[in-house]
Amino acid sequence: MKKELTESEKIAYNCRKATLLIEKKQSIRLTSREKMELKLHLAGCYICRVYEQQSILINSMMTKLFKADPKEIKLDSTFKENLQKTIERKLNDKR
Amino acid sequence: MPIEAVVNDKINRAGEHQLTPENWVTQYADYLYNYARVRLNDDEQARDLVQETFLAALEKQNSFRGECNERTWLTAIIKYKIIDIYRKKSGSFKARDEYGTPIAEEDFFYPEYNNWKKEHWPAPFGVEEHDPLHNKEFMNVLQSCLQRLPPLWISVFRMKHLDDEGTEMICKELRITSSNFWVIIHRAKVNLRSCLQKNWI
C-alpha cells in the first residue's frame, strides 16, 4: 500500500523537483516558497547537494567551451569568388 | 511634408549606415562563416548559410533602416536562419514527448516519490577542487557528451551559453512555453551530468 506522505516528507523525497529548482535558480529568482522548499530539501539531501555543485560547474564549463576562441577558418577562395560573382550579377540585374 | 520634418529626415539620414553589397564577401563572409560554424557544428551547412544570408539580404535591402551597421544586420539575418535550422532539427527528431526527450531516455528518478534512482546517484567528479578548465580531458568528455544530446536540448544550451540569450527570448525563438523550457533544461542537464560521470570517473 502506498504511504501517504506529509508535506515535508514530499519535499524531502522530491529530488526531481529540487534539481529542477537548482537549474531554475541559476537563471532566475525563485519564489520565496520555492526557495524555502529547496533549502529544506538540500539540508537533508547530500546527493542533491553534489548535484548542485556539479550543475554550477557544468554551466560555467559549457560557457567556456562554447565561447573558447574557435579556430578561425576561412572560406575557400573559389567559393568566395563564385559568391562574389553571384552577388554582382544580381546587383546588375537590379540596375 | 512640413519643413521641420524634412530637416529632421535629412539629419537622421546623415548618420545612417549604408549597404554596400559588392563588399560583403570580402568583409563579412569569413566572419559569418565562423559565426555559423560554432553554432551548427557543421562546416558545410555553415558555408551554405553564408550564401543564403547574402542572397536573402540582397532581396531585402529595402528593409534595412540604417539603424545598425551592415555587419550587425547581416548577423541578425544569419542568426534567424540558424534558429530556423534548430527548429527544423528538433521538429524532425523522433522524440518521446514535447520536451524533445529521446525515446530510449530512461528516467533518473523513481516515479513514486521522485527521488534519485540509486544507479543514477550523482557521485563527486573529483575535479571540483582545481580549475577544470585546464583539464583538457574533462572538456573533451563534456564536448562529446554535448554532441550526444538530442537537437532541442543542444539548441537550448547553445542559445543560453553561447549567445547569453535570456529565457524569454529562447522560448520565443524556439517556440516553447516557459514551463516546458525548465523541464527541458532540467532533463538536458541531468542527462549531461550523468554522461560526464559515466565517461569521466
Describe this structure in words.
The complex is a heterodimer of chains A (95) and B (201). Chain A is an all-alpha fold. Chain A has one domain. Helix content of chain A is 75%, strand content 0%. Chain A is built from five helices and no strands. Chain B is mainly α and 201 residues long. Chain B folds into two domains: 3-83, Rna Polymerase Sigma Factor, Chain: A (Orthogonal Bundle); 118-200, Winged helix-like DNA-binding domain superfamily/Winged helix DNA-binding domain (Arc Repressor Mutant, subunit A), CATH 1.10.10. Chain B is built from eight helices and no strands. Chain B has helices spanning 3-14, 24-40, 43-59, 70-92, 136-147, 151-161, 167-174, 178-200. In chain B, helix 2 (24-40) runs parallel beside helix 4. Chain B is elongated. The chains are: A mainly alpha (95), B mainly alpha (201). At the A-B interface, helix 2, helix 4 and helix 5 of A face helix 2, helix 3, helix 5, helix 6 and helix 8 of B.
